[in-house]
Amino acid sequence: MGITLEMNRVMPTRRRRQRRRRRRNRHRYRSIAKLGKRKFSPSQQDDDSQGAKRMKNSGMLLSKDIWRRIHCLMPMRDAARVACVSRAFLNSWLCYPNLTFNKDTLGLDEHVCETDFISKVDHILKRHSGTCVKTFKLEVPYELDVCDHVDRWLQFAITPAIEELTLTLYGTAQKYNFPCSLLSDGMADSIRILDLGHCAFCPTIEPGSWRSLKRLCLSFVRITEDDLGCLLLNSLALEGMELRHCDEIVSLKIPCTLQQLSYITVSECSRVRVIENKAPNVSSFYFTGNKVKLSLGEWLQVKKLNMRSSRIVRYARATLPSMMPNVETLSIGSLREVYTNTLDDYID
């Protein structure tokens, strides 16, 4: 009797423990099932696939500024191609900063005609916003006469952001006058490189204009001594100057205000007779053409000298040692002089 009562007390206790254990296990399985459902739910799988795409196409998360930076480092032809297949690059093409138009970038062969060249340039400019152009290069192939359109293209390109301007009209039948009015009202202030060829140039000079100009290249350009002198006086940051076949200049005067000027090239300017340099830091001088007189001035820093002219050797031996005593690299080429016995003997 006593054992039966004791068993009756123990059994309910065991049953209660088993029930509690079952409830705990049930709760645990339920939690695992919920976790499993959450882990492998369709929505979670979509999220995972989207995350994978984001990882795969992480470049799409780049900002517009970074896309634009990448795009502007490409050559223009490549930049135009990727803009056709990428929305990100298509948007940055509107502000692509480096526009270069020549036979190669436009994909033209040697048999190109004016109509093809003009239509391709117009087609590209129509798809550009006209802002943020920093470099504009227009190199028209030989025998293409597009002068009637050049003013319009330059007007599109010359903005306060322009830094490099190149215009070369090879062999044009017309005499083209560069529209210098486009460079007024501060438009020339940002230009760092100016490269002109086969045109007339009468620069507009305003207070502070041309203050950023570092490199000046003029080839087959009709420019007067006075206009060139005014341009140089205002180009205080100028580091290099190249003049080729500028036949209206007789006396070239380089002012002392050009403290940064380090190299000068004067080539085949048929009427130049005198070159007077007062810029104190010129270290490289290159000259080809008719016999010229180098006026006494600031030539002491010249270390590299290259001269090609008729009857130049005798003049060089008599004049250059005292005028340019620090020359380290010297190249002299002369026509119409015959060497005889010693270095001092030259016959015209």
UniProtKB/TrEMBL annotation:
InterPro entries cross-referenced by the UniProt entry: At1g61320/At1g61330-like, LRR_At1g61320_AtMIF1, LRR_dom_sf
Q: Which Pfam family name is an example for this entry?
A: LRR_At1g61320_AtMIF1
Q: What is this protein called?
A: Os09g0502900 protein
- What are the boundaries of the region Disordered? 1-55
- Write out the biased-composition intervals (Basic residues): 12-40
Residue ranges annotated for the At1g61320/AtMIF1 LRR domain, each copy included: 124-340
